[in-house]
C-alpha cells in the first residue's frame, strides 16, 4: 500500500504547509534528499499546546506532548511532500530530530518523540525506520512543547 493509502487508513490527511515564522523555507530539496525545517504542533493555525513538558501543575503532560510530536511529524510530512512531488515520492525517512521544551526534572524526551517516530513507521512501514535524536531544551519558538525536523530520501 502507498504512503498516501496508509495515511488515509489512519484517518489522516496531509495538512497545508505551515507558513514559516521567520526567514527560512519549510523544506528544501537537494538532489535525492529533502531537509525539513523544525515543525511545530500547529493545527489550523493554532498551537495544540504550549509550555514545557513534565509532570505537575502548569506543565504539558507527556501524553499531550507525544500527541504534539505526532502533529508536528504530520506537518513535517506535508512540508516534505510539497517539495518532493507528493507523499508517495518519499522513499524513506532518514533522520529525525525532536526537540522537547522540558521542565528541568523531565527526562522522557525519547517517549515524547516516539509520537513522531511511530507515525513515520505507520505511514512508510520499514521506510519509516530512521536515525533519531530526542533533545530536551529550555524553550522552543512560540512556546511550543515540541518541534520535529527530518531528512527524507526521495525515490529515484
Can you tell me about this structure?
By secondary structure, this protein is α+β, with helices and mostly antiparallel strands. It has a single domain, classed as 2-Layer Sandwich (60s Ribosomal Protein L30, Chain: A). Helix content is 29%, strand content 28%. It has three helices and seven strands. The strands form two sheets. A five-stranded mixed sheet has the order 1-2-7-5-6. The chain has a two-stranded antiparallel sheet with strand order 3-4. Strand 5, helix 3 and strand 6 form a beta-alpha-beta unit. Helix 2 packs across helix 3. It starts with a helix and ends with a strand. The model has no long low-confidence stretch (mean pLDDT 97).
* Terminal CA distance: 19 Å
CATH class: Alpha Beta
> Rg from C-alpha positions?
15 Å
Q: Can you write the helix and strand succession as a string?
A: HEEEEHEHEE
Main pleated sheet: 5 strands, mixed
Q: Provide the spatial order of strands within the biggest beta sheet.
A: 1-2-7-5-6
Number of domains: 1
- Tell me the β content: 25-35%
Return the average pLDDT rounded to an integer.
Answer: 97
- CATH superfamily heading: RutC-like
Proportion in helices:
25-40%
| Uncertain stretches of 5 or more adjacent residues | none
Stated plainly, the CATH topology is called 60s Ribosomal Protein L30, Chain: A
Number of helices: 3
Question: Which CATH architecture?
Answer: 2-Layer Sandwich
Q: Could you list some keywords that capture this structure?
A:
alpha+beta, 60s Ribosomal Protein L30, Chain: A, 3 helices, five-stranded mixed β-sheet, 7 strands
Amino acid at each position: 500500500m502507498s504512503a498516501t493509502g496508509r495515511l488515509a487508513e489512519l484517518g489522516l490527511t496531509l495538512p497545508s504547509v505551515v507558513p514559516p515564522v521567520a526567514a527560512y523555507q519549510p523544506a528544501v530539496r537537494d538532489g535525492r534528499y529533502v531537509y525539513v525545517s523544525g515543525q511545530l504542533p500547529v493545527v489550523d493555525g493554532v498551537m495544540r499546546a504550549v509550555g514545557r513538558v513534565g509532570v505537575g501543575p502548569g506543565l504539558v503532560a507527556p501524553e499531550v506532548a507525544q500527541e504534539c510530536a505526532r502533529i508536528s511529524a504530520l506537518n513535517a510530512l506535508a512540508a516534505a511532500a510539497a517539495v518532493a512531488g507528493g507523499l508517495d515520492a518519499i522513499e524513506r525517512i532518514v533522520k529525525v530530530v525532536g526537540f522537547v521544551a522540558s521542565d528541568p526534572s523531565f527526562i522522557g524526551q525519547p517517549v515524547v518523540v516516539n509520537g513522531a517516530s511511530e507515525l513515520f513507521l505507520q505511514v512508510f512501514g520499514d521506510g519509516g525506520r530512521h536515525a533519531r535524536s530526542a533533545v530536551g531544551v529550555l524553550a522552543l519558538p512560540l512556546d511550543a512543547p515540541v518541534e520535529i525536523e527530518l531528512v527524507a530520501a526521495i525515490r529515484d
